[in-house]
From TrEMBL, chain A:
Keyword Transmembrane: yes
Bilayer-crossing regions: 28-48, 68-93, 113-134, 154-174, 225-248, 260-282
Ranges for domain ABC transmembrane type-1: 72-279
Keyword Cell membrane: yes
Similarity-based family: Belongs to the binding-protein-dependent transport system permease family.
Protein name (record): Amino acid ABC transporter permease
Alphabetized Pfam families for the sequence: BPD_transp_1 (PF00528)
Source taxon at top rank: Bacteria
Main location: membrane
PROSITE patterns named among the record's database cross-references: ABC_TM1 (PS50928)
UniProt keywords, alphabetically: Amino-acid transport, Cell membrane, Membrane, Transmembrane, Transmembrane helix, Transport
Subcellular localization(s) per the UniProt record: Cell membrane
Annotated signal sequence range: none
Amino acid sequence: MTVASAPTVTARDEALDMSIKAVPVRHYGQWLTAVVVTVLLGAFVMALAQNENLDYSIVAANLFAGPILRGLVVTFQLTAVAMIGGVLIGVLLAVSKLSSNKVLSAIATGYVWFFRGVPLLVLILIFGNFSLLFDTLGIGIPFTDIMFVEVETNAVMTTFVAAAAALAIHEGAYMAEIVRGGILGVDHGQKEAAAALGMRPGLAMFRIVLPQALRMIIPPTGNQLILLLKSSSLVSVIAGGELMTAVHDIAAVNYRTIEMFFVASFWYLIIVSVLSIGQRFVERRAGRGYNR
Amino acid sequence: MSGKGNMNSTPMVIAQGVRKSFGRHEVLKGIDLEVNNGEVMCFLGPSGSGKSTFLRCVNRLETIDAGRIRVDGSLVGFKERNGRLYDLTEKELARQRSQIGMVFQRFNLFAHMTALENVMEAPRHVRRQPKREVLDRAQDALARVGLSGHEHKYPAQLSGGQQQRVAIARALAMDPKVMLFDEPTSALDPELVGEVLDVMRGLADSGMTMIVVTHEIEFAKEVGDELVFMDGGLVVEKGDPRQVLENPQQERTRRFLRATATV
Ligand SMILES: Nc1ncnc2c1ncn2[C@@H]1O[C@H](COP(=O)(O)OP(=O)(O)O)[C@@H](O)[C@H]1O
Ligand SMILES: [Mg+2]
């Protein structure tokens, strides 16, 4: 730690003489893998490029077609709404599950158990056909006929609302576990220090614990967002109007299914790439205040 | 030069028959103590003797199984009405804790906040005092612990000694009636212990009532008004720090002091 002996000139010369000229280990395996993979990949790309059943002009013509771009916008809207909803539900569930209120905790546990168990596709189908279950929705006093507000299910449950709700509710179950993990990862001393200063548990949670949990919550949340974006394509089964629905609609007319799937893949790849870059940026910012 | 002499004899903290168990393990077996206003009480004792647990009972970070603790006349954790005890609500408990400062062995500064934000947090969001006023007082508090110029550093950018001084400033910002210190220098490199003890000495001089768990014998001798030696959940011996340290009456105390002296 201390400067016991400052390096003298001779010591430094000696260090120079001892500079390293070692022969690095040759990674033959790595070379071999690279060659094999290149050959295989090349063969596959050639097979696709020369495939006479594929008409690339159709892919090109549809990439920026109006319905596709409109579908893209709906995909963004759906993902954004479902993600915000999912995060809110997730935080609420995580805090409930960790609270001393046993009823809240049980509800949160039940929610996560149920909505992680039901396949997203099934959930979307149920929400998309909600009017088969209940033809009206309303607010009233349970077990009585008194209703304050009542509306036709189909008037509120548009496909967009149904799709967004299904995605958000599903996302909430996963976010709950991520947020809970983040909260548990924060040093217990932080909560004690907050309590000792007179902060009530709720205040300590939102001002002290959650902001620090964010650092652990953000990376997996980025993955969830990417997953959710792609999962939104499932909404096409109820004609949710997003990118995949648009792709299906066009394919139903031009019978160029594979070409249209290429169009979809192109856009999903682009968006996911942009999101991944954003994710890295946000992760770096979330590290503020921590030594690294 | 110390907290000695400026005490008057109204008790700030009173513990009567305090008992506490974790499961079947009884950690506090009936603690009776009084800390007068402006007095510095130091706790000494082997690891696991219940010093931290007692301190944590004083601000209700731990609940007690039997006995009573009072701070400035009010019962800690309960209210008494018609001879019955009622648990305090979260809100009342928080209010009570806001009047008792605590400094932890491992600092526990809020890692996502700067030094200044750490000190401002409770006055702003617990007391809801106006921002300007809080800012001024937070800067004063940091100056008081010798950390002017470090306001905008995050805990990770500060040395252990600096972090602990921020923690002291953070507690002081709430104008506590009493300050509890749980081995405030035990996690520090030896060369940083002095700066924290100096701050604590200054605090004692200013008349702050303090309960200090420490292994710093010299500090206890100089600053302490009373020294309590604990072992196995009981107070073995207490009295004037010099008396207890230089002329211990109990064999258990002698053995402990001999063992620590050889270290
Ligand atoms: N939260 C807890 N749960 C169970 N046992 C505990 C807990 N906290 C402390 N103890 C036990 O209580 C005893 C006293 O601990 P502590 O008060 O920390 O002692 P000291 O501070 O004197 O070293 C120890 O045996 C410890 O293991
Ligand atoms: Mg301890």
